[in-house]
Every structure is written in C-alpha cells, then in structure tokens.
TrEMBL record:
It comes from Aromatoleum toluvorans. The lineage of its organism: Bacteria, Pseudomonadati, Pseudomonadota, Betaproteobacteria, Rhodocyclales. InterPro entries: dTDP_Gluc_deHydtase, NAD(P)-bd_dom, NAD(P)-bd_dom_sf. This is dTDP-glucose 4,6-dehydratase. It catalyses: dTDP-alpha-D-glucose = dTDP-4-dehydro-6-deoxy-alpha-D-glucose + H2O. The gene is rfbB. The keyword NAD applies. Signal peptide: none annotated.
C-alpha cells in the first residue's frame, strides 16, 4: 500500500485514479476535503476496495501515526497543499499552516515510522514530495529554463511556503537519512481542476457568457503540463528516482496566458459554438495581481536522462482532451461552483 496525501484534489485525484488503473496496489488516501478537495473526483472508486479514504488533516500527528501503524504503507506521496497564488495573497496563514507545518508533521511522522522498520521494508520506503516550479522565482524572456540547481527565489506567499517545505524535505534527508524524493512541476491542467485556475475558469466563464479575466497584458509565460503526464512522471520518480534528488517535471510547452485563453476560446467555438459570437469577445483585461512572476520555464532533461520520462501529450492534444472533459462533465463543474466559490470569484476579480 502507498499513502497519498491530498488525493481528493486535482493532481492527487488524477494520480490515485491513474495508479489504480495501472496496477492493484492499494492506496490509503488522506485528504482534509477543503474547498478544492472533492470526493466526486473519486466517484469511480466508490466501490473499489483498493481505495481507502480517510478525511483528515496532515497537521494531525496523532492521526498520521495511527494510519502509518495500522496500514504500514511502503511509501508516502505528498500532494496535500494550498496551491493558489491569489488565495495566498488574500490569506497567507493557511498556506504556512498546510504547506510548512503540515509537511513538517508528515516528515516527523514518516521519520518515526521509517526508523522502526527493519530490513527490506526500511530500505524500500520512500517519501515523495510534490512541489512546484514557482519556488524558483521569475525568469526574464531570454533566461534559460529552471534546472534543478537553480537558486530558490519565491515571490508569493504560496511559492514561499512551498519553498520552505522543499527545504524541510531536503534537511530531513541530509540530517536524518529519511529516503526522500522531490518533484518540482510546471503548471498542470486537465480533468478535475478546480475552476479558480486559469484554464477551467476560462472554460466555465466562456460557457456562461461571462467575462474572461486576463491579468495585466496577458503576456505572463508558463510551461504547461498535462496532469496525466505528471502522474506518469511521479510513478517513475517513486520507482526509480535517486534518493535525496530533485526532478523537474515540465511539459515543454511555454506559452503566454493570453495565447492559452485564445486557444480555449477557439476550441469552444469549434466544440460548443455560442450563437452570440466567438468566445474571444469575452476576454477582459484586469489589473495584475501583486508579485505576478513574468515567466516560468522548466528544464526537464534530468528526468528524461535518468528515468526516461517525457510527456506523452503535446499542448494541442492535452488542451483538446481537457476542454472536451469539461464539456462532458458540466454537472461536476456546477457542483464545485458553490456559494463559497462564487464569493471567492467576486472577492478576487470584482475590484480589478
């Protein structure tokens, strides 16, 4: 069995579904079910005995100790995190608690559990920490992409909290010998992504005929990674990664946000035409967010060289799959767009 934290969120749920499609090893799924954690993401596993779900907080050391002792997982794959930059600007305390204190709690629980193991069980145990390229800061247009050796320069409360968690994971390896692995990924997109993030927000608003808010001049550049490719990369790192190492996971798809929005609009024009006209008519420029990094780009050559992983999806194939999924799953979108979600949209975009 493996323990997955945050396995009802966007990337975590995709990983759990992908893991159980690929094999029969059970998953113990620990998720606090905050606003972005959604058991509907895991509806396909409702009657699957290989999936054991526990609602709980990664800051709850007693709970984690009990789960480790009872289930004896061979690995922990740590997704659980507050992950939205805009939310971190409005409320950084939750990010420090979950991303820093929560990771610390997990590391200490894992260290105690691992230290008590013997023989092959101890040698085979892994703690895989899933992080972000945002810890590296911002790139100028001509700068080389982020390599694993790039100095950390976080610019938002979110990225600072993730950088802190990365440093803790590294320290627990070098100080205590805990067998850790870290992945730093670029912007994920795909099924089950909460519609506060760029791509699902654009899809949902376009279908509703609402403005498509684009920060600043829309020229902020990101590398885009289809979530299924990310899941495959994590499996490779968990199985074959070198202990204590960091692996950058990217999609080799650098694109400005405005181009992403136009691509989504063009696909919706094709797949769900609006009688009122092209969806791009809804694009609305809004005031930029504070500390908005200009460019991210991932150098993913290390994971390809050492583990043979490359993304299977191009942006063109991945974004088409993503738009088609949201069109086919409008009930899911409607359910997650609760009153709390609508209040958040008003708070974040209403005064821009």
């Amino acid at each position: 069995m493996i323990l997955v934290t945050g396995g009802a969120g966007f990337i975590g749920a995709n990983f759990v579904l992908d893991w159980l499609r690929a094999g029969d090893e059970p998953v113990l799924n620990l998720d606090a079910l905050t606003y972005a954690g959604n058991l509907e993401n895991l509806a396909a596993l409702r009657d699957d005995s290989r999936h054991v779900f526990v609602q709980g907080d990664i800051c709850d050391r007693a709970l984690i100790d009990r789960l480790l002792a009872a289930q004896r997982p061979r690995a922990i794959v740590h997704f659980a995190a507050e992950s939205h930059v805009d939310r971190s600007i409005h409320g950084p305390a939750a990010f420090v608690r979950t991303n820093v204190e929560g990771t610390f709690t997990l590391l200490e629980a894992a260290r105690a559990y691992w230290s008590a193991l013997d023989g092959a069980e101890k040698a085979d145990f892994r703690f895989l920490h899933v992080s972000t390229d945002e810890v590296y800061g911002s790139l100028a247009p001509d700068d080389p992409p982020f390599a694993e050796t790039k100095a950390y320069e976080p610019n938002s409360p979110y990225s600072a909290s993730k950088a802190a968690s990365d440093h803790l994971v590294r320290a627990w390896y070098h100080t205590y010998g805990l067998p850790v692995l870290t992945t730093n990924c670029s912007n994920n997109y795909g099924p089950y992504q909460f519609p506060e993030k760029l791509i699902p927000l654009m899809i949902a608003n376009a279908l509703a005929g609402k403005p498509l808010p684009v920060y600043g001049d829309g020229r902020n550049v990101r590398d885009w990674l289809y979530v299924g490719d990310h899941c495959a990369a994590i499996r490779e790192v968990l199985a074959h990664g070198r202990l204590g190492e960091t692996y950058n996971v990217g999609g080799w798809n650098e694109m400005p946000n405005l181009e992403i929005v136009h691509t989504v609009c063009a696909l919706l024009d094709e797949l769900r035409p609006d009688p009122a006209g092209p969806h791009a008519r809804l694009i609305t420029y809004v005031a930029d967010r504070p500390g908005h990094d200009r460019r991210y780009a991932i150098d993913a050559r290390k994971i390809e060289r050492e583990l043979g992983w490359r993304p299977a999806e191009t942006f063109e194939t991945g974004i088409r799959k993503t738009v088609a999924w949201y069109l086919a799953n409008q009930d899911w979108v409607a359910h997650v767009q609760s009153g709390a979600y609508r209040e958040w949209v008003v708070r974040n975009y209403g005064e821009r």
